Amino acid sequence: MTDSIAQDRRGFLGSAAAALAAARFGSLGALLPQAACAPRAALAAGELASLGQATGWLNSPALTPAALRGRVVLVDFWTYTCINWLRQLPYVRAWADGYADRGLVVIGVHTPEFAFEKDPDNVRRAVRELDVPYPVAVDSDYAIWNAFRNRYWPALYLLDAEGRIRYTHFGEGEYERSEGMIRKLLEEAGAGDPGGPVDVRGRGVEAPADWGSLKSPETYLGYARAEGFASPGGVLPGGRQLYQAPARLARNQWALSGDWAVEGQPATLHAPGGRIVHRFHARDVHLVMGPAKRGEQVRFRVRLDGAPPGDAHGIDVDAGGGGTAAEQRLYQLIRQPGPVADRQFEIEFLDPGIQAFAFTFG
Fold it and tell me: Which residues are within 8 A (CB) of 339 and not within 5 positions of it... i.e. 6 or more apart?
């Protein structure tokens, strides 16, 4: 992706077309008016000092600029429900493992997008279940995010042994270029031949998207960022309402059916039998969702063009379409093995209490 494209993402939320174009780029963090879209060669003392404002650390004691002096440092901003970061993760994991003995330090900065991602227990569970092996600075107050003037998930900042930001990359892709810069800075730091390049095989939700067939953008269900909503009468922000799904949907339209309250971030179901319907064009369908109350479980059933998904089921669904949401995270519901076309996705919740936040596709 060219730098000119990378520098024009502050208008990401302005249109569905821009959102689709940005699917490969990554999620926009709409928290700051200023974007950090170019490498900065100035000393990054302020950025690294902000690590001291982390709300916690996982996999490591707190890291300080003094402890990082003389090391090449890769800072990776992430949030655990972001599909763009999940598909980047196997590369960062491999770099952390493959170059650690040459002097590379990888720090994952977990800055939340959704409110439930601020919960330290949720972050701790995600680090364990997603096999994030490197140090993680928990940035629930956005202090590190703000110090780096960052706006994207995922975002890579590569600092040389003198503490200068020498390379940045936002979103997925350009892995060879990013690894090449890691190797270059390690050689500059006196590591000699750093070995590699590493071998990466993303599997499951970490597998690369089918970019040639991807024609559906990230779709938020909360009223603050919702687009393409097609239930008659529109959204009643914040209040409970009986919604209906229309008989037909155009591509990238979606609808609710049942007793829902559409809040700023999630749509929350208050009675069993509620449905979400989405007309999409992509190989994969993911939904960020989970029970509103910790410890509860919500059973669901998925249909593709009105039938069980069969071989097109995702890793969180069986061939008959059945599944259970037990925690708030990204669920892979559909992965189609054959040709991709416009399809009708439907998920019905057999229990109340689900909160649904966003569809992503791959």
Answer: none
Tokens of 139: 């940035």
Task: Write out pLDDT tens, residues 293-315.
Answer: 999 999 999 999 999 999 999 99
For residue 82, the SS3 value is coil
CB atoms near residue 323 (< 10 Å): 21
pLDDT (tens digit per residue) in 139-195: 999 999 999 999 999 999 999 999 999 999 999 999 999 999 999 999 999 988 777
Between CA 100 and CA 154 the distance in angstroms is 21
pLDDT for residue 88: 98
H and E: helices and strands count for the chain: 8, 19
Query: Can you give 9-67 as a three-state secondary structure string?
Result: HHHHHHCHHHHHHCCCCCEECCCCCCCCCCCCCCECHHHHHHHHHCCEEECCCCCCHHH
Phi-psi domain of 137 (left: phi exceeds 0; alpha: psi -120 through 50; beta: other)? beta
Pairing assessment for the beta strands 165-170 and 155-159 based on DSSP bridges:
antiparallel
DSSP assignment of 222-280: STTT--SB-STT---BTSEEEE---S---TT-EEEEEEEEE-SS-EEE-STT-EEEEEE
In three-state secondary structure terms, 130 is coil
- Tell me if the pTM is above 0.90: no
Q: How many CA atoms lie within 13 A of 35 on its CB side?
A: 20
The Cα 293–Cα 358 span in angstroms is 18
